[in-house]
Amino acid sequence: MARTQLETSQRILDVAERLVQTRGFNGFSYADIAQALEVTKASLHYHFPSKAELGRRLMERYEAAFAEALRGIDASGGSARAKLERYARIYAGVLRDDRMCLCGMLASDYATLPKAMKEAVKHFFDENERWLAAVLEAGRSAGELEFEGPAQDAARVIVGSLEGAMMLARSYGEPARFDTAAERLLASL
Amino acid sequence: MARTQLETSQRILDVAERLVQTRGFNGFSYADIAQALEVTKASLHYHFPSKAELGRRLMERYEAAFAEALRGIDASGGSARAKLERYARIYAGVLRDDRMCLCGMLASDYATLPKAMKEAVKHFFDENERWLAAVLEAGRSAGELEFEGPAQDAARVIVGSLEGAMMLARSYGEPARFDTAAERLLASL
DNA sequence: GAGGTTCTACCTACTAGTAAGTAATTTGTC
DNA sequence: GACAAATTACTTACTAGTAGGTAGAACCTC
Known about the structure:
Chain A is an all-alpha fold.
């Protein structure tokens, strides 16, 4: 028994996460993970019986980490605009690590995902939208931000636009494109 | 010879296009196309020797059709805002056919694409950006649109935001989400 | 019968997944 | 604290099925 279960499954998830974020859920196989970690495919199946289960656990961990990051921003107690900027900076950081947002990637793989993963992807975006809408509404009430209509609609535009900008910036290999887009987007509020 | 080569390859491209737009480039196989058209895989390889070649030809046709659509908008001679609205309506139409933009889909598959396809994807976005920037600049000059900084930057925000909004709307199976996002986006100009 | 098109029949490589076995460790009992 | 039993974390060796791709025969249509 070389390593503890927890340690190993985290290492597996680390590799799988990067693979999904760079190649998509259909763009990698257990063999890729096995090679990266120098273990057998069978060993991976011991920790994650099926690829669907691996994907589900991946989402679970990712969403928890993201929620934690959002709580971190809330705790910082800055202005609404400052919070939005920190939110965008999370995306920028992922992009600079040559990755796409996990859920942005899975959104494009959506039609081919196992059911549990589909639900998890939507839940991720729902939570993002909810957090953003709260920040936006607070900012508007404070006279700090300006936008028309429901905060939820504005939140959806932000999530979609950041994901889209990220996708394009990554294709061009120019993370700065994302920064410019995010800046303009927030400036319009 | 039941059908002409042209006719058959177009039918193959039709099916392949829909498959890429719904499942991604790694989410379908020659077997899927063969089944849909009730021909053998070998027959597909006669028309498109490799999947990479099939993808390249797909892009070629798609970009030509898109360019034609843009020329159609130009020819209509409406206001800059009307042109942008018609541009967004192209995306909305694709979405209502349960599809993603071909190139938006390929942007997320980017890391796994054959080289020729990578170039074609970037070229598609370059052309969109160029067209949008021209419309935006003309609209600003005419005092019809209002935005800060280079038209190119604004154009990039639009392309990215529409692609992102499309991706999310499709995941939720709610095309109306796209319409709302597109409306807000254009209203901010 | 010539040429274009499609078929049968196949190949190799790879996919997710499994069965059976094993060395190291932990646990329970005395 | 000794020792057997159970558990953990793997491995080797395999499965059925699918991926993209190919050689060559058969089939149309002119």
